[in-house]
Amino acid sequence: MSVYNGGSFLQEALESILRQTFGRLELIVINDASTDNTGEILHNWRRSDNRVIICDQENRGLIASLNRGCRLAKGKYIARMDADDICDVRRLETRVSFMEAHPEIGIVGSGALIVDEQGEVIHHQAMPTRPALIHWHLVFENCFVNSSVMMRRDVAQSLNYYRPGLLLAGDYDLWSRAVAVTRLTNLPDVLVRRREWGGNIITVHFSEMELTACTISRSILEGLLRRAVDAETVACTRRLLVLRQPPRSMEEVRIVASLVRDLHKDYQAKSPLEGDDSRELARDVGLKFARLAMGALRISPWEGLGLAVEALRLNPGHLAMRTLRRILRRLTAGLGPAVTQRQK
Known about the structure:
The protein has 344 residues and is an alpha/beta fold. It contains 14 helices and 11 strands. It has helices at 7-18, 38-48, 62-72, 91-101, 134-140, 153-158, 170-178, 201-204, 206-225, 231-242, 250-270, 275-296, 301-314, 318-343, and strands spanning 2-3, 27-32, 52-57, 77-79, 86-87, 105-110, 112-115, 121-125, 150-152, 183-187, 192-195. The chain has a 4-stranded mixed sheet with strand order 4-9-6-10.
């Protein structure tokens, strides 16, 4: 755990780790020159629990702090924890059991319940669970919740931990590099509460994090497609499919649709999938086309319908049908004046 002026929620975070049902742990906390009551809270816990290891340092930033903590770790596994999040008491026990039973998995995470400053649940953040499709999902966005992650120390060490050059989104970069050396997955159970509030890093540094995320996504894309992808295409893809913003033009929709088609084809060629993995990939591609169709309808209803049909072909399930009905309603509303004019 790295912490900088985290006194507001630190007590709850520490308690959730130190009361784990899996007790054979060391809690390494890097205090990155906090000026609030963080130090006092940490040293109070240290006096009452000798599993707490505190490293006070001058301000070096998140990545340097995390790397220091990882290098100090002695255990077989390293579990991440953010200073404003909360874990279920079974988090470590269930993850260690899973890792012991699945030696092929080097990194495991899960979804999370997103909570506000008061700890009230806002929504459930689900994450993809199929190891064969983690690389696919990482193309578009970070699909791991920090405070749910456990990784094998030897895997993290082989990657030289977090890349120092990335001030923000260093975790996303680590997972994107890890797919080359190990298998990654998320478990369906939710044993973490991730706090969203005005002072956390995602809120304060959103713009900078988005730029870094685009850089990472672009690197993954170019590796899979084996060709250059321009930065604006990547930014546009994240705007439409991850941030779910409306398209600025029909050309943006065409560019993203073409990229998704190429990526789907190349991903299948590079990583042949069968059964449920193949169906899940097609489902996700279909959902992406459905999102593009919804955005396209306001600009070009006929092209939007074409994308909707493509979405339905890839994902003919209940969710796709429900999405298609919404698309058709919007299409009908959008085409009404045009059809009337054509009849005249």
